[in-house]
Amino acid sequence: MQVPIHPQHISVLSRRRYGVCYACGLKLISSGYHYGYNYGCTECPLSFHIACANSIRRALKRKSHEHDLFYFGTDILRESKRERREREMRMREMERERERREREMRIMRMRMRMRERQH
User: Fold this and answer.
1) For residue 34, how many other CB atoms are within 10 A of its CB?
2) Structure letter (DSSP) for residue 9
3) What tens digit of pLDDT does each residue of 58-102 get?
């Protein structure tokens, strides 16, 4: 497949499991969406989601915008179960850190009030 965003080389269907899509910047997914298949350049380390490679072939041209526009769809935004668990775990950690900081601030304010009362 000739991809307009990378016309120097040919991209072929592959099962590259790691890296990011050169078009949209999202992770290549090893399972689920298109069973882990994507398009990869035969000579460079560039890879594309199948949906992105297909979208890139059909540029939307508008007089109101100087660049070509491409639609990448929403299917490539799906998270794997592991990615969702990791994101939720990071969010819980951030919430615990926020709560810890709030407790520290309450303690610090309480100590300041106690010092003010002593003077």
Assistant:
1) 15
2) S
3) 666 778 878 777 665 555 455 567 777 787 888 889 889 999 999
